[in-house]
Amino acid sequence: MSEIKEVAAEVSEKDALKVKEWEVGMLQDEVAASQGIRIRRRPPTGPPLHYVGPFEFRIQNEGNTPRNILEEIVWHKDVEVAQMKEKMPLPSLKRALDNAPPVRDFLGALKAANARTGLPGLIAEVKKASPSRGVLRENFDPVEIAKAYEKGGAACLSVLTDQKYFQGGFENLEKIRNSGVQCPLLCKEFVIDAWQIYYARTKGADAILLVAAILPDLDIRYMTKICKLLGLTALVEVHDEKEMDRVLGIEGIELIGINNRNLETFEVDISNTRNLLQGERWQKIQEKGIIVVGESGLFTPSDIAYVQEAGVKAVLVGESIVKQSDPTKGITELFGKDISC
Ligand SMILES: O=C(O)c1ccccc1NCC(=O)[C@H](O)[C@H](O)COP(=O)(O)O
């Protein structure tokens, strides 16, 4: 009987901890909203299923419906990361870092490619599917694609690790890293917890994406510091003026990605890159020596020329090259010339 009491006490202590975590999450949302972040970290009207102990049900209501796909991804990621952390707590993850392959210089590779070709350095994306475009490539062999990209002159690769929405995985990152491909690798994830940065490093990442639309300033500050500590490059992604201004106000950021895709509506407009690189913003970027990456919706040599003219020194491209039966040729067609030599 006393054994049952002990177990009950342990369980309720665990539950109390979860509730505490939950309350902190609620505060996080308030801070985020004050910075113009529309994406909420969790459903506002109650904890997700795994937080409610033995009562595995929740009354559905409007507040528990994500407002858009990005919010849905974040809510799902919140549950996924909590489960992963339970399986591998941070101390054991930190120990696993000792066996991680050495970090490669992601930013250096982009700068070198830009200097060598006079064109934006290419981050070529290994992506099977996306919420906006569905399945992009049925016959998807991540290592084969990565090798084809490297052969075509990609400076770096971006590897989707989200399983549910992009049909990616950390095993793809690991396989590419162990395949002999030399390009530095960006872990393309929806990072909401520093734990994911450590995890990505153990799987061979050299860089990681931090999306300003889902991360308050304090998180970006803290996470870029962790990246530095681990030797990783942080690619901080923005989509609008507000996010750009927030990120330009944070010290130590070296690489900013401008996403031409609105992740809440899927609308793509490459003039977004040009619009965010004007006037005082452009001056600040130059003063700080920040490298800018143009992301999404780039299909032709004139698209590349357009964003280069706007000021980018790198581009991140997925759909237009991953869909090609020969992705090496796809890169040559995208740039209008062979960029491999
Ligand atoms: O692409 C989506 O549908 C999407 C939805 C929600 C969050 C992120 C999403 N995409 C990430 C990206 O923006 C792209 O993978 C990346 O920039 C490459 O874009 P593209 O060259 O247009 O494939």
UniProtKB/TrEMBL annotation:
EC number: 4.1.1.48
Pathway as given in its UniProt record: Amino-acid biosynthesis; L-tryptophan biosynthesis; L-tryptophan from chorismate: step 4/5
Keywords on record: Amino-acid biosynthesis, Aromatic amino acid biosynthesis, Decarboxylase, Lyase, Tryptophan biosynthesis
TM region positions: none
GO molecular function: indole-3-glycerol-phosphate synthase activity; phosphoribosylanthranilate isomerase activity
Pfam entry (one): IGPS
GO biological process: L-tryptophan biosynthetic process
Entry-linked SUPFAM superfamilies: Ribulose-phoshate binding barrel
Indole-3-glycerol phosphate synthase domain span: 70-334
NCBIfam families attached to this UniProt entry: PRK00278.1-4, PRK00278.2-4
Record's protein name: indole-3-glycerol-phosphate synthase
